[in-house]
Model the fold of this input.
Amino acid sequence: MIAVSHLGRRFGGRAAVDDVTLDVRPGEIVALLGPNGAGKTTTMRMMAGLIAPSQGSVTIDGVALTHTTGDALRGHIGFLTEAPGLWDRLTVRENLRVYAGIYEIPEPDAAIGRALDTFELRDRAATPAAELSKGMRQKVALARALLHDPSILLLDEPTSGLDPEITRGVRQLLEDRRARGCAILVSTHNLDEAERLADRIAVIQTRLLALDTPAALRKRLTAPRSVIRVGGDAVAFLPLVRSADSSATAEGSVLTASLGDAARDTPDLVRALVAAGADILEVRADVPTLEEIYLRLVGAPAAPGADIH
Amino acid sequence: MKPARLRALVGKELKDLMRNRAALWPVAISTVVFLALPFVIAIIVPATSGRPLGDDRDLVRVSAVVGAHPELTTTGRVQLFMFQQFLMVFLLMPITGAMALAAHAVVGEKLARTLEPLLATPVTTAELLVAKVVGSLIPTLAITLGALVAYLILIAATAEPGVIQGMLSARTLVLTVLVSPVAALLSLQAAIVVSSRVNDARTAQQFGVLIILPLGGILVAQFTGSLWLSATVLAFIALGLFGIWMLLTLFSIAMFERESILSKWK
Done:
């Protein structure tokens, strides 16, 4: 388990990270979200012991990460950096072999073989890293981060630049690692990936804005909406719907309303619409997307068309 | 310091270097030039000009520093003096090329973005820096040793009879086995310090050039005959250089700021 408490880091007079407290438990994936420059990479670097916090602390498996303990504790962590950072003149196998030596892996050839198989890199083992595509380089970097079977994974945008097939493979791999008890922190801009993968979402913008499960964040930050599609133009029924929700909208044949208790109030509204002569074609609950939650948290305006009005 | 980690890192440095042929050219060229230079001056020029070295009074006078060698002709004694004097410079010069590589060692990793994943491992600063130095030192010494063998073979083939026997002395041994490796170690360590403190490769190379200036001083002193170091003095110099290297290593570890390397370098 890796935990940070009141973590902060200043560069000169500027706070890159301020008072962040979060933990990643064994068998859990936490997605770290935030705009560019929000302090995600700095937070991860502090968690990996690469830079020292200006305030607060990092503990790994109960041991405080300090200058003295850093070298040993880094052995518990697999860190995927923003750039793959491969030695271009070395082959894929040689790149992995150096790290196998650094981590003092007892049977390096077997470990490297497993990593090559996991990432389907066996046929590229003898290829110099300089000749690999961006996706392949990212796969090698991931293989390197997992080579020593770490109990903690810190992954800075692991699927950035990867094609959908490889992305799915990486996602599957992270799920497998989670099942084996690995504590995984994933920094990403891909909200869909965060939604699919993460048990909890941490949103950071210098400070920690939220840390919870996607469902709990939805419940806390957005109201559920009922979407009703009627035959013909919905505008005719808007006054009726606005009697239940003054912010209700109509667009084309679709009415959208946020009701206090959707389960109780939606049938009443549908009955009223039917009584008013509406032909009801579809009724469904509209679950707010993680993107809406995220944009609300970071205070950015929603993109046009991101919502139904 | 863990041997397995050092082996892994040094192995990486050597593989990387061996595949970087372009970077090895300066080392090879400086070695060949400094291998050829003594023979041009001591053998080819006198032979083509028709003026044997033994006819030059100044050279005969300064060559007395090599001691009495009754088995040698006057020209042979001047040749021995010149080959001995060039030996020191010749042994140190390959370091200049290797220093360009060492100066690039840390900043090069940073620019290639390979340093951050490396620093995220349990590797200690001492392991990282020692591996960098050893990774540059091994090829430097291999080149120097190979060139030394060629130097002695060429002396045996071209110089006056008895000069090669004069070269096989305690002084040559001390220079080869002690002074040259320790000077290389010290210079490369200095280059690594520079590489750890600058943030672009060109600056590293510019500072690297400054480190070889003392070698230039030795070169001038050698040719004027004002510097003649006996085997004992050379052994003490090697010991002193070794002490300085140890201090410099501790200094370079203290000066290596992982954090500013990652957060301030662009």
